[in-house]
Each structure stands twice: as C-alpha cells, then as structure tokens.
Amino acid sequence: YEGWRQLTDWNRQQGPGSARSYLESAQKMAELRPQEAVAWGYLSDARARNNDRKGAKEALRHAFAVDPEYT
Q: Is-above-0.90 flag for pTM?
C-alpha cells in the first residue's frame, strides 16, 4: 500500500499529463485499503482531474462513510 501511495503522490504532482496514471494508482490504493478514507480521497481527486465529477463525488462520499471525521 505504501508504495502505491508514494506512486500516487508522485503522479499527482506531475500535472495534467499524468492524470490517467494518477487515476490508476489511486484506484489501486482504494482496492488495497477500502477501509482507508485517505485512499478514497485520492481516488476522488484523481477522478475529478480526469473529468469524472460523478465518480469523484461517489468516492468522496465513500471516504466520509468510512471515516466521518475525514478531512
């Protein structure tokens, strides 16, 4: 999981040209740790950067369902 998180952070910092890679690594984080709100937060952001507003909202809702105190 930690390796995927580092890759996801790196992809996020690379800008618009890495949006697809960011999404793929964020999806893997959520698959590996579905009980982690942070993973769903990354997925929400990655979906938003890939113009998937509906998917971004869904992932963010899931983050709050997992941890109501998520920020």
A: yes
